[in-house]
Amino acid sequence: MIRLTGVELRRLTARRITLLGVAGVVLITAFLLFVTWREAEPLSALEQQQARTSFEQDHKMWNDTHVQNEAECRKTWDPNVNPGANIDQVCSYSEPKASDYGKPQAVFSQLVPQLLHGASYFLLFAGFLIGASFVAAEFSSGAIGNWLTFEPRRMRVYGSKIAAAGLWFVPLGVVVTAVLTLGTYLIAAQLGSTAGTDWSDVIGTAVRVVVTTAMGAVLGAVVGLVLRHTAAAIGLVMGYIVLVEGVFGAFLQKVQPWLLGKNFDAFVLHDTTYDIEACTSQPDGSYTCDYIQKTLTFEHGAWYLAILTLVLVVVGGVIFQRRDVN
Amino acid sequence: MPDLAISTRGLRKTYRTRRGRTVVAVQGLDLDVPVGGVHGFLGPNGSGKTTSIRMLLGLIRADAGTMTVFDRPVPARLPEIVGRVGAIVESPKFFPAFTGRKNLELLAAAIGVPKQRVTEVLEQTSLGERGKDRFKGYSLGMKQRLAIAATLLKDPDLLIFDEPTNGLDPAGIREIRETMRGLGDQGKTVLVSSHILAEVEQVADTVSIIGHGRLLASGTVAEVIGGGTTATVKIGVDDREAAARVLTAAGLAVRADGNYLLVDGIENPAELTKRLADQQLYVNELVPIRADLESVFLELTAGEGLA
Ligand SMILES: Nc1ncnc2c1ncn2[C@@H]1O[C@H](COP(=O)(O)OP(=O)(O)OP(=O)(O)O)[C@@H](O)[C@H]1O
Ligand SMILES: [Mg+2]
After folding, report:
1. What is one term from the GO cellular component aspect held by the record (chain A) (predicted)?
2. Same domain, yes or no: B100 and B115
């Protein structure tokens, strides 16, 4: 099994689509860093001057008017117009803050989770695609039949392919997340701020991205094996995204905690939120809807992904064990 | 040493087609392949040769029946003997974008054979330098050679070739034939499937003939053909009408074939020439027409209502 896994790793490395995939990942990584750098660049002196001027204007206006405005507001307040509203909230005129004018500063601890989260999607996709084609190509070319005349123990053959797909993507995931993290750190250190960085958070996120990348490759290999064609595997994913995540998820908001997308986010971001529309009829006969924000926990996401992967790997194994190979 | 390389009993496989119809590909096949020498596995298209071979190799599951390879029940104990079995099933299939050499190197690594063996088998099958080209650019003959090279990586005792000469030119056919004969002479067992008797009878020591997924005859080539039919003889004679009259009178079935006569059911052609010579009719040409596989088949299967 170890020997077979080694052979499969060699084969995966020698495939052209693997190289193309890696080239794509490198390009996207470079692009993400470029965009981050552009975003982090501070405003020019002229733009800063403009921002300061408009702040000063607004602040002066506020100074001149807020006392009077507030008094007016309280005087005309009619509690029946807007039942439930709080007079202190409605009639407060907050002071403009200088930091709201111009471009916000690039802060490493805020940028890096976003960036890694974005990277997790394309790494997942790259893993899935390369993993799927890695195994599906054997079935569409028929080479698997020849392979099995050399190693007829199907579970070993299956295990070695799955393991190779997953293992191959670990170093890639490590390199990409490391480059993104360090790149962003350098950018923030130069152009913004690296204050308040909790490295254990950052590393935790990066590790989770590596895990989901390997998971994507494993799932790709399983789906490629079951469907036997790369195109079919991609079609299945597209169909799932559009129909289940898109249409079904939009109409039945309550299923969101059971969709792959939200659980993926919950795992990578360590908790995520989703909105549920809650509508009620008011005593006055009006019908109002509010969005209630709910949290999907990291644990939920982790269990969801682990069980999903395990179930698919087992199902794929059973199918391969019983399948007639031509 | 077991005396049977392959043995099957009551082997059966049914396929379900897309439209839900069932096709019985192999129905109760009892096949025995002795150890050593070349064994022809003959049958017309669709008679279940490839299906049987796939079952032996554990690629597809049998619905019923038992199989042994070197006395080990397969597929259960296939892993024990797979190192002694090299097989090419239908057309050779490798990773198309990899070179022939890369394909062999991966297979060699998978079974723990040293890399230098790859160079050796490439030389043996005269692929040599072409091993550096991609498999998808190979001609059919080169693909076959690469497949043979792959089976030789293991130095197997049993080689299974499924229609190895499909699509080859005469030189290629002869080369494969010589390879098989050579392996047989080294004491290896070669099972070669084909639907062309002529292709196999020159190399095979023994044959099994199947039709509709069951065994119709087996034994040495001579036994099988001889046992199936008597020969048809084509004769050239000046006065064909007179000759036809004489032979018909002797109770033989005579047909005209251009400038020749065809006489069926002849066991000893000498008898035929004597009979005609007695009537001053001299045979200037006599060609025994061999029973080909098809006629053996038709004969073998006629009574069963299968053909
Ligand atoms: N995967 C399959 N699905 C459905 N039917 C099949 C399948 N493979 C083979 N068959 C059917 O099983 C029968 C036997 O096929 P098989 O390929 O074993 O014949 P064969 O003797 O090898 O023929 P050939 O000389 O043409 O190679 C045929 O009727 C074929 O149509
Ligand atoms: Mg066949």
Report:
1. plasma membrane
2. yes
